[in-house]
Amino acid sequence: MPKDTPSRWDRRMQQRLAHGEAAALGELYDRFASLVHGLAHRVLDDETAADQITRDVFTQIWENPESYDPKQGPLRSFIATLTHRHAVQRLRQTESAALVRTGLGTTEDLERKVRHASAAARADYIVTSMPAPLRDALNLAYFQRRDYRQTAADLGVTEDEARRRLRLGLQLLSTAHNTGTPPGRSYGRPA
Predict the structure, then answer these.
(1) Chain mean position to CA 64
(2) Sign of dihedral through CA atoms 125, 129, 135, 136?
(3) For residues 67 and 61, is the Cβ–Cβ distance under 8 A?
(4) Residue 4 and residue 37: Cα distance in Å, rounded?
């Protein structure tokens, strides 16, 4: 399938939502609710706020299914971008209100906190979206403190392949500090 061709599932889901098929919303929720909640929680560090963002995102998709254009990229990316936008907006609102209420901190502190939370959420999204072989190599190297030789042995691949997987995974992760939407995505404007 050409890279710019949207997946059949994504196109069909958008059509089902546009026709008001409630079962489609349930299927979409089952498939992406943990992604939405996880990204929102990563930005906001608040379970209740993440729950609200999850409801808001799926409500927006239900009420405006045409806002997703399968030609622009995967539905997963659209949902992640929408979640990121909602969560950052909520973070700015709550932190701005706290700044006004307490007088502690500056707008620069607020923006620094937003940038940090956004980068962390993008890194989470990148890791969960990358191919399993890259994710597995990074997991061994980072969390289990394996070097590339040990990673190769654990994965049953050559040392060159382990280095390649680690390099590609780290290159993907290095984009987490870029501003805007998750890497390679074209939905909307940066938050």
Answers:
(1) 20
(2) positive
(3) yes
(4) 28
- The answer, yes or no, to whether residue 33 has pLDDT greater than 90, is yes
Rg, C-alpha atoms of the chain: 19
pTM: 0.67
pLDDT digits over 45-74, tens only? Answer: 999 999 999 999 999 999 999 999 988 889
**Six-digit token string for 115:** 């940038």
Give the DSSP per-residue string, 143-161. IS---HHHHHHHHTS-HHH
pLDDT tens sequence across 130-145: 888 998 998 898 888 9
- Mean pLDDT of all residues in the chain? 85
pLDDT for 129 beyond 70: yes
Of 53, 56, 65, nearest in space to 25 by CA: 65
What separation in angstroms does the CA of 67 have from each of 11, 70, 72, 101?
13, 10, 11, 36
Residue 185: strand, helix, or coil: coil
Distance between CA atoms of residues 61 and 20, nearest Å? 11
Q: Which two structure tokens, joined as six digits, stand for 188?
A: 């909307």
* Structure confidence at residue 99 (pLDDT): 75
Asked whether 70 and 10 are in contact (CB, 8 A), the reply is yes
